[in-house]
Amino acid sequence: MLLLFQLIIYFDLILQSVHPRLRSRQMLFGPFKFGYYSPGTAPNRIPHRLYLLVKEVVDIMKTHNDPKKALATVERKIHFFCNYFHSHLPYHGWEYRRDNASTIVNRYRLKRGPEYNMAGYIPFSLQDLKVWKYEYDSDTNLARRDMINVMSIIHSRKTPAIWRLGAASIIFYCKICSCFGIDYRRLEGASEDDVCLMKSISLEEEEEEEEEEERRAMAAEIIYAVCSQRTPITMNWDEYAISFYLKMCTCFGVDSKLSEDDCQKNRF
Q1: Among 85, 205, 88, 202, which residue's Cα sits nearest to residue 155?
Q2: Collapsed DSSP state (helix, strand, coil) of residue 37
Q3: Are the C-beta atoms of 21 and 85 separated by less than 8 Å?
Q4: CA nearest 10: which of 167, 175, 171?
Q5: pLDDT tens per residue across span 88-143
Q6: Angle at 144 between CA 32 and CA 104, to 5 degrees
Q7: Alpha-carbon 133 to chain mean position
Q8: DSSP single-letter state for residue 137
Q9: Mean pLDDT of the chain
């Protein structure tokens, strides 16, 4: 599994280094937001997972004689959390400081029941994803829509086929899993609380919308072919597109100029 990760990452990084579109994308810097809370529903304390990470820092400082390396590992996770889950912090000015970690832990009140209240959280829309398509984060080398795709996978609690992800997505996926204490090899073992902060829009809706746009573009191409009375290039047309074209030609009395075989297959 590790060798597969390394091969995917190696070849994907080569592709990103030579692909002109990837080189021309707009660079972004965090912290990032992927949604917002409706008025009156914003959290009034840090997320429970962030509290556990800060508590881990406090425990390390109390028990380790040489805590430098252990602290660096946990604090990287804290900074990662604050950068990519900034929407869930209690207010804009909140930031982590090591000298304030004990105070944060002591003031955090544990409660019974669900640790998160996501009822007022609204993920950004499909339209926002289209605007962000060619932006990318300088740290992860991912566009925000790619980050949302990874978060959606984790939120589904269904272990993905790793070879379908790019190198940068695999790294981001593993970092989120590590930050939230999730086994990246088996998302099915994660709890609902483990993944709730990854809530985002359904990318299936985005795919449906893109398919609808393709259908509209195809319809416009067919109408243009009928109006111009030019022989259309049907190489990329499916049987439904050809059938629609023939019906349009019949309705307007235009010669379809298609082969006899195509006309016979799609006669109505």
Answers
A1: 202
A2: strand
A3: no
A4: 167
A5: 988 767 889 898 899 989 888 776 555 678 888 988 876 666 666 667 788 888 88
A6: 25
A7: 11
A8: E
A9: 77
104/170 Cα distance (integer angstroms): 32
* Residue 33 CB partners (closer than 8 Å, separation 6+): 86, 87, 124
Structural contact between residues 245 and 237, judged by C-beta atoms closer than 8 angstroms: yes
Strand 35-37 to 121-123 pairing: antiparallel
| Cα angle 40, 117, 98; round to 5 | 90
Yes or no: say if 150 and 172 are a contact pair by the CB < 8 Å rule: yes
Contact (CB, 8 A) for 35 and 124 = yes
CA distance 187 to 170: 14
The DSSP H or E segment spanning 122 is strand 121-123
Portion of the chain with pLDDT greater than 70, in percent: 68
Output 253 or 234, whichever has higher pLDDT.
253
The size of the chain, in residues, is 268
Tell me: the pLDDT tens digits for 47-90?
999 999 999 999 999 887 778 888 999 999 999 999 999 989 88
Element (H, E) at 83: helix 68-84
Give the single-character DSSP code of 113.
Answer: S
Instruction: Annotate 186-202 with DSSP letters as a single string.
Output: -GGG--HHHHGGG----
Determine whether 57 is exposed, middle or buried from the number of CB atoms within 10 Å of its CB (0-12, 13-18, 19+).
buried
- State how far the Cα of 234 lies from the Cα of 144, in Å rounded to an integer: 36
CB 143 within 8 A of CB 136: yes
- Residues with Cβ < 8 Å from 231, sequence gap 6 or more? 257, 258
- d(C-alpha 200, C-alpha 19), whole Å: 29
